[in-house]
Each structure stands twice: as C-alpha cells, then as structure tokens.
Amino acid sequence: MVSLLAGCSADGPGPVQTTGHRADSTWDLIQTEIFAGQCVSCHTAETSFGRQSGLALTPDVAYEQLVGAVPTNAAAAADGLMRVSALEQGMPGLLKSYLWEKINAPDQQHFYGDHPYYGELMPFGGKPLTNGELAFIRTWIEAGAPETGHVADPALLEDESRYEVPEFKPLAKPENGVQLHLGPFEIPPHSEREFFVGTPLNNEEDLFLKRGQIAMQTGSHHFLVYTFRDQTPADELPTPHEVRELRDEAGNYVLETLRTQLFQLPVFGSQWPFFDYAFPPGVAMRLPKDTLLDLNSHYINRTSQSTTGEVYVNLHFADPAEVEHEARLFALNNLSLALPAGQVTTLEREFLFEERTHVLQLISHAHEKMVEFRVELVGGERDGELTYIAYDWEHPPVLDFDPPLVIESGQGFKLKTTYDNWTDADIRFGFLSTDEMMILFGIYYED
Ligand code: HEC
User: Fold this and answer.
1) Residues in contact with 350: Cβ distance below 8 Å, sequence separation at least 6, in sequence order
2) 265 C-alpha vs ligand 1 centroid, how far in Å?
3) CATH of the structural domain 177-323, one choice from 2.60.120.230, 3.50.50.60, 3.40.50.2300, 3.10.180.10
C-alpha cells in the first residue's frame, strides 16, 4: 500500500514536492516537533511499550508503521480503521484513522464511551497534545498523509492551548430565553440508558431560537433536542414530562419510543460535555406557539457502580425584529428502500432544491445495516464533490458549515448509502431497528 501511494504521488498531481531534501516537510515537522518529544520514548521497537503497541515511531520506520498500516488493536482493525488511511483524504481519511482516534483528546467522551476496546488516549499517561499539534496532524491526515511536501501551515503549531476536561456545573440562565433541566438520574452499573422526555415550552407566542447551549455531567454519549413535524397527528405526540426509555430492562427496544422517531426533527445536539451553537447573525428558528420539544439523553456507564446523569439546556431567543432569515429543518428521506437478503446494496437518491438554500448543518440517520452514508453535491462547479460521510450508524457526525454551504436553485444533494443486509430476510423502510432508513437531516435558510 505504501509503494502504491508513492507511485501515485510521483505520477499524479499529488502534494507539492520540496527540492530534494525533505528537512521541513509537514511529515518531518510532525516527527521532530511532536513525535520525538512525546511519543518515541515509548514507541521504539525494543521497549515493552513498543512491543505491546506494535508501533515504532522512530524516524527510520515511522512512516511505514503509520500510513496504510493496520492497527495492532483488534477492535480498531475489526472496525476497518487504518493507523492512518493512505487511500482516503478529507473527512473519510480522518474517520478511518486510528491515530486520530488515539490523540483526539477533545472527543474523549466519545472515545471512552463508544470504544471500550480502543485502549488509552495518547500520549499515554501524559497531557493531551496541544490544539495546535492536533490541528497540524489533522490537516496532514486530511491531505492524504503525504511523506513529502507542505500540506499544513507550521503556524498552526503556535497554538499551545490544550483541551481540559470541563468541570460540570449548571449553566447560567439565559437573559432572554429558557433553561431546561434533566435529572439528576441514575445510570445502573455496566449499562446504557437512553430516554426521551416530551417538554412543552408553554409559549403563548412564536419564539425565535438563535442559540443553544448544553452542559452535561460526564459519561454522556449524546444529547439531542428534537421538535416534531408540522403534520404529526396529536395522538402520536408524547405525553409531556413522561420519561420514555429506549430499551426495556431486558435490553430490547421499546416500540412506542421508536415509533415517535418517525415524527421527530433534530434541532441541535452534542456528543461533547459542553456545547454552544449560535445561528449566524440575523438567522433564527421559529418555535411556534405551544411548541413541544423532545429531549433525548444517552448515557453509558462502564463502571461497576451506579453513575449520575444530568443535563442543562439553554434556549436563547432573538428579538423578532432582529430576524432576517428563518432557519428551518429538512429531512431528505428515501422511503423506497429495498435491501435484498444476504447482500450488500448501495442505494442512490438525488434531492434537488427549488430555491437557493444556505445549509448550516447536516446529519445522517440510518439503522444498523448501514456501512457507509455518503452525500455528494449535485450540479454547479462542485458537482460530485463529497460533502458529508458517516461510517457509524449509531454516531453519525454532526457537520456544521460556517460559512453556510450555498446550494443554488436546481442543485442539491445525492445520497449514496451502502447497507450490508446480513440477514436472510429482505429489508424495507421502517422504524424498527430491524428495518432501515436513509435520511439526511439538515438545518438551512433561504434568501
Ligand atoms: C508512556 C508510553 C507511551 C507514550 C508516551 C505514547 N504511547 Fe502510544 N501507546 C502506548 C501503549 C502502551 C500502547 C498500547 C495500548 C493502547 O493502545 O492503549 C500505545 C498505542 C498507541 C497506538 C495504537 C497502536 C495500534 O496499532 O494499536 C497509537 C496510534 C499510538 N500509541 C500513538 C502514540 C502517539 C502519536 C504518541 C505521542 C503523541 C504516543 N502514542 C505516546 C504507550 C505510549
């Protein structure tokens, strides 16, 4: 795989080559500025750490050991990760790279919560890499991890701030807005708890949401705020304040809870313990009179003691006179799913927009047979360009666009979703976990 990459960059356009010697290529700087001081002491062939990890980061072998190499860690290898992917760039390259998982400290709740078998964050036992070092390595991976040439600005390394685990405390109440509070609630030992709570705002007039904040007690996998589709039949709406568990005590899905998902639209959410999102100035989302929100919390407890979950949510409202554009939600939903038994199937579906659309956020939704969810642009100069990708049906990335992604009238998105139906029954669209879905949710505004 390494020689294949070298071949490609020699014939193709590839990264810019420096003149003969490679003293300060991006890859050289990663080694001299980051690996030499913080990694090589352990990651040397003859040390016990070196043997345990099966990874040497000394200059003679580091490139071959990382790029295009299968991880020693069995869970990461089984998930299809490479230490650093040699074949994919951009977001796919990053999502396929185990090195990035192992150093990306700001995402540590996801790392420990979702990947109990991925070992420890690196550098092992040390402080996380600085935000500048992370940005530098990330840019290199996104550029296809070339051995030569300059693909990341060395000025990135000047940012010496570091991620610190934030201390959980209640959010200050918003000046113009409301605060919602869930918990404290218990998460039993060795278990996951995911539930929904219908939460009425009891607003007598329309409100305009301009900013959302979330603060969560540690251990949270994610938290999401949903609204309901306009046409939702009244008897499908949840009873206010009732806690609806996603799984019963035996671990089976509760059908009524799943069913409500048919009518939900995500507004904002977070996988990180603290989250603060504001729409661009002048943009806000209308919450009509008597809005009912659905709050969705998911906690994972891998310890042998009960832990406690707790979530604060702030909704900040705009003065209606400030609102120039209304943020809205779309759900591009392919209802005509047919996945034959025992086959891998890729479905494609195009969705075109009639009006010029400014997209602020994208997130995909599918069930457990999904292996890849790609979204490409349709039309215009960037026709065919990959704009979104998810490999993990349970944790699709929430992708924010700042500045917004502008889709001209007549242009749109092509969804290309691959499913592995390993069962002996055909699968169609449906809300059970044994059925499938192919939805791209988005937040947007029009001119
Ligand atoms: C104190 C020793 C130590 C230091 C320092 C250290 N590591 Fe590790 N590393 C380990 C051990 C032990 C493992 C195997 C256990 C695990 O994955 O948690 C490992 C595993 C890894 C793996 C996974 C290897 C595989 O294929 O499974 C990567 C990638 C990695 N380290 C990168 C780094 C980087 C990059 C740095 C520097 C920023 C670093 N490590 C610093 C000890 C260390």
Assistant:
1) 378, 412, 413, 414, 415
2) 40
3) 2.60.120.230
